[in-house]
Structure formats: C-alpha cells, structure tokens
Amino acid sequence: MVYLKPINILWIVHFHQPKGVFPETYKKFTQKATLPFLYSINNHPKVKLSLHFSGNYLVYLQNENKEVIDLLRKMVGEGQIELLGGGFYEPIFCFLSREDSLLQLQKLHQFIADHLGFSPKGAWLAESVWEPYFVELLAQSGYQYTILEDSLFENAGLLPAEIKHPFLTQFNRHSIYVFGYHSLFSKEIPFKEIKDIHPSFVQISHREGMQIVCIAQSGELYGFWPDTREQVYQKHRLEDWLHYLDENSSWIQTRFPSEFIDGYWPVISLPSGGRKELQPFCLPHRATLEFVSAQNDLKLRFDADRFLKFFKGGNWLSFLSKYPEANYIHKRMLQVSEKIRSLPRELQEDIYDSILASQGHTVYWHAYKDGLFGNYIRDNAFFHILNAEKMIRERAPQLFSPIENEDFDADKFPEIFLRSSRCSVCIKPLLGGSITEFNFLPTSYNLSNTLRRHPCFFPEPIPPEMYVEDWHQRTVFLDHFVPLNTSLYDFVSGSFLEYGDFVNQPYEIINTAETEKGYSVLLERKGGLYFTTNKFNFTTRKEYTLTPSDELQLQYTITNEDNIPIELLFCCEINYSILSVDSPDRYILINEKRFTPGMTFEEEKVWEWTIVDETRKVKWQWYLADGPLHLFHFPLYTLNYERGLFGKDYQGSTFEILKPFHLYPREKMELKIFSKFANS
C-alpha cells in the first residue's frame, strides 16, 4: 500500500451579482446556484470551505431570501464554513480613494459580524487585482489574509511547486498573509472526472514539506449557467467531488486559510496585477491583438513556461484610458465622494452609502461581455452618483452652484455644469463642445449615458455584418459636416464622409454668465472643412442656456469664414439612452407616430418630438425653432461573446438633425434647439 502524505485543500467560493442587474437575475442566481450549492455542502459536514458573499448580494438575501442567511448562520456556527470579507460593493481598490477603500472594507466586515455572527479574517479581492499598497488598506481594516491567483506569485519569480503555503507580504510597517490559488485546479474542479484529478493530488502528496492546494472559484460555476448546471448536478460532478473528499479525508484535509496564519512564513513582494486571462484586455485594442498573437506564438515553444510566467498585460487602471466612458463615470464618482467628505461628519453616512454603491468594479472594465458594456450597469452607477449628489444639494446647496467650471476629470481642461431644480448637464468643451451628461434629477437618470461602438477582441472571427466601430464618442450635440447625399445607412454603418474638424475637437470657452434667460455658456471653434488637400475656414458657435424653468436652449451660429461659397449638410447628432430597444413603456413620439428606441427610421418635416420612459417618470421634449427639418434615427449595438456565441448589447440610440446649407463668404446660418423635461 502506498503511503500518501497529507495535503491541505483550501476551497474558496465567491458569490456575487453586481448592482444594476435585474431582480430576476438575483433570484435566478440564488435558486440555481447559491442554494443548491449550500445544500450540497451541508450534506457533507466533514468538508470545510470558505465562502465570500459581496455586501450587496447579502443585503438582497437578507431582504428576499432568509433561507440562505439562516443556512449560512447555521454552517458558520457548526464550524463548516469560514466567511471572507472584502469591499462591500465588490470594488477594485486602485479605482478608489484611500478613504472610500477603508469604508468599503470596514462596511462588509461589520455587516458579516452583525448579521452572521462571524468576524472575517480574510478578504476577497475582485478579479484578483493587486497593488502592493493594498496591504495597508487590508491591515487597517482588520483583515489578516487574502487570496490571489498563482500567476502573481509566478510573476514574482516563484515556481508553481513553491506556491504550497502562505506568504507574508508587507507595505511600509503593515503586513498580511497571501495565499496563491491554483488557477488550473480552480477551472477543472469539479468538472473533471475524479479519475483525472486524483493522480495530480497523489503527485502533490509525494512532494517534500507541507502542501497546501488553494482553489478559488465563482459561485456562478455551480449552476447559474445551463451547461455548468448539467455537469454539476445532473452529471453529479459536485457530488462526486464531495464524496471524494469524504472518502480520502485521511490524507486530503479541507481546511480554512485562517488555520495557517499564526506561523512563520517567508516574505514575498508581489507585483501589480490581476487575473492572467484578463490582463490582455487592459491594453489598447491594437496592443491586445499583438499581445494575444505573441502569447500564442510563445505557447508553441517547448520551453514556453520559462517565458509565459513573466509575460504580463497592462495595468488594471489602463481600462480608464482605454474606455473614456468608464473614465468619465469614475471621475464623477470621485468628484462626488470628495464633496461628501467636505460635509460635517454627522451628515455624511447615508450619502456615503450611495456613492459606495457606485464603486462596484463591474462598470469600470470590459472583456468579452457585460461590464462597462452593460447599459443597466452604467445606469445603476450613475443613479447612485446622482442620488448622492442630490442628497448633498439638499444639505449643502453651496457645494453645487447653478453654473460651475471645474476640471473634475483631471484632463487639464475644464468642464462646465449647468444646474436647475430638475435638470443638470455637463458640457465638455474638449469633446466638440458637446454634452456628456444630461440628467433628469427627480429620478437620478442620466439620459446621455451611452457607449461608443468600441473595437473589441474576441477569440473567434467576428461576423462582419454584426460589427461596426465608431471613431468618436457618442455624446449630445456633436457637429457633423457631410455631403448632401449622405444617407441614413451611411450613419448607421459609420461609413459617412466627414468634412469638418468639429466632432471630437476642442471648443474654446468664450463666456459663462448669468443672464435674464438663465445660466449660459458660449463656446466657439474656429475650425475648417477639408476637401481634397484644401482647408476652408468655418466657425461654429454654440450657446447653451439653462433656464429657471429647466429648459435647455442651444443656439448654433455657423459662419463661412472663407472666400468661396460652400454647400453641405449640417448634422447635429444627439445620442441618448432609455435602456431598452422595445419595452412598451419606453418610446418616442414624432408627428403623432410612435417609435421604439430600437427602430431605424427617418422622418420628414419634424418640428418636435418626445422621448418617454414611464419607468423613470421621464417625458423629454425636443423642439426645433428653425424647423421643420429632416431626422434620422438608429440604435447603437456592440457585440458580446459568451460560450462560443456572439450576441448584441444595446448601448443607446442616435438622432441626426439634418439642415442643408449654402453659405456665401462671411454668411451665417443659425439653428435653435430646445429641450425640456415636461414632467417630474
């Protein structure tokens, strides 16, 4: 009989759904994954494991499914499970201020202690994202250890066989323990058959010294998806794995990480990083393609392992430069968070909870699907940002003046906010003098929360008929100069010919003022139209005015500054999102006709139209003082990829207001557009 030395299994499973997903998603996740998994574990009381539940998911369970809470409390009391803490709303801490990071960490720690009777010693870090200074944040919040992917330890120079125990890592005078989880086992268990897993454990058992095998997984693997549900429960793979652990408990012992943090362990310094399979997506699109190509070439070498362990993608913060929309939400979140800290402490707590809810990591990055590309995820983040801003305005209105000039996104160019009682807009002179944020304040709703059709990397060839890229961001009041025969399809496909240099170029702030009409901003760009190799000078002025009655008025003055007449089509582009393409309570009214945001259409002789979202009590009216004019309308979709299939995500819709012109030298053209929220 072969003697097998003991090995220790540290099994961690993470349960989370981001803020902003539909209630039915929470319910499905609970019924299909969380409960079946917990009951399976409960039937094997000798198996010990660690569980992590994000704070917002625990709140959902507390309100909607006490069965899970009661079961967790029972299993904690019996010593079968150990709970991990972390950031309450599942943030990634490099996106947050130090103050907000500590609040996130302490909030979940306290919630678990109060509601589940357990004081967590370990912290779960979203997507295994790590920065060395996290040591200080975790230690100051009462945490003693965390779990990270083995690739970070290999980046630090360790061999896979050396990742067999915890390590001590330090920052300044703080320290915590770090465990490296086995990324391959974490993917294979319990989906591989036991006969294929057993030899690996036998081999590990024959190694010298103590052996810890850490496995860290998402709870979604345990039944949330139909294919995994079939394997885990119908093919009994989870039950087989649990039975294997029971039968081999003489040499395979399931333990908690906290059982190993009182001894002496080597010190390690881990580099910045995150989950290995996600690191290519941090890079700009072209670099992602080059990275994956180079990585695949390396894998063909017989000695690939020598190189791949040092082969890293971009820093996680690079997502903010890759996706301006994510950067915008991020900087608005930080702006409001700073304003909260300027309030007296007794006024901060409930406002802080709203801003913390906007810090969940999902909205700030993207890989194959969801994340930033989920419109409901973006909407939820903005809802909490605007809700926090609304509460601050009620308690300290001086912090949000009716007109405010501030470089809140740290790009060295100012943005301008105009605010009334029910409406606020953010004007970005650097981005074509357009509006990047158009808010209906009573329901904390940003209706310009759209997304450009970004280039994306997928593991399979993209169906060409499904894929369109945009060369500019999708904001409100973008200025196109195009040929007179430009069609609706040209805009839908992004194949139109742009003559002007106004769309994504900077406008100069000429003046900001309080007038008898309201608060106004005058912007100007002395730009040009380009035919062949010649530039023809054109000037576009945009004057925005927000009235006390919540009406936004925009007056264009476009001047031919050159010495020849020019005839073109001016298109004012308006991008908006009411989240659904075909919901019966979200629609558009034009010329007594009803359209949905998902329809592609053109309409002649339009004076006015109304965008309605009954779910958020919005009736958004538009009026053309210089009408009637021709309108184009079309939806914007990006691609997603999941389990071998491509799909489409709705990101918003576009109006193009068309005004043909023939301007002689020094001649001007005007266009007035009014917008107002007609109800509250």
UniProtKB/TrEMBL annotation:
GO molecular-function terms, A-Z: carbohydrate binding; lyase activity
Domain of life, source organism: Bacteria
Pfam families associated with the record: AmyA-A_glucT_m (PF09094), AmyA-gluTrfs_C (PF09095), Glyco_hydro_57 (PF03065)
Gene3D superfamilies: 2.70.98.10, 3.20.110.20
Stretches assigned to the Glycoside hydrolase family 57 N-terminal domain: 24-263
This protein's record includes keyword Lyase: yes
InterPro entries: A-amylase/a-glucTrfase_C (IPR015179), A-amylase/a-glucTrfase_central (IPR015178), Gal_mutarotase_sf_dom (IPR011013), GH-type_carb-bd (IPR014718), GH57_Enzymes (IPR052046), Glyco_hydro/deAcase_b/a-brl (IPR011330), Glyco_hydro_57/38_cen_sf (IPR028995), Glyco_hydro_57_N (IPR004300)
Alpha-amylase/4-alpha-glucanotransferase C-terminal domain segment(s): 407-455, 469-656
Protein name stated in the entry: Alpha-amlyase
Protein source organism: Methylacidiphilum caldifontis
